[in-house]
Amino acid sequence: MLVMTLEAVPESLRGELARWLIEVQPGVYVGNASALVRDLLWDKAVQHTRRGRCTQVYRAGNEQGFVIRTHGDATRRVVSLDGYQLVAVRNARHTELSREYAPPEDDDKL
User: Fold this and answer.
1) Listing from the earlier edge strand, what are the strands of the sheet with 22-25?
2) Among 34, 27, 25, which residue's Cα sits nearest to residue 2?
3) Is 64:85 a contact under the CB 8 Å cutoff?
4) Which positions of the chain have pLDDT values less than 50?
């Protein structure tokens, strides 16, 4: 099983995915594809996303039974914790703290 979601991407990319997968809802594609086709679709989506976002979830032989790939969304990123993939979401508090935080200078590089 392969699931891909696209947001704010060119129509040509949507059309390309519709050739391989079924669009069950605007921007949500589902289907079965070989690992080669899955990876080629991901490469194409990443290349043509521009300022949009794309996510790919597919079956894998790990503990969770699936793998998550994301591209283009600065507020969400996939992190691995003890072999489990989790989605970390940056909120307004993270943005506020990142402006206040100034990393200490590394004396070895001066």
Assistant:
1) 22-25, 28-31, 2-7, 53-59, 66-71
2) 34
3) yes
4) 110
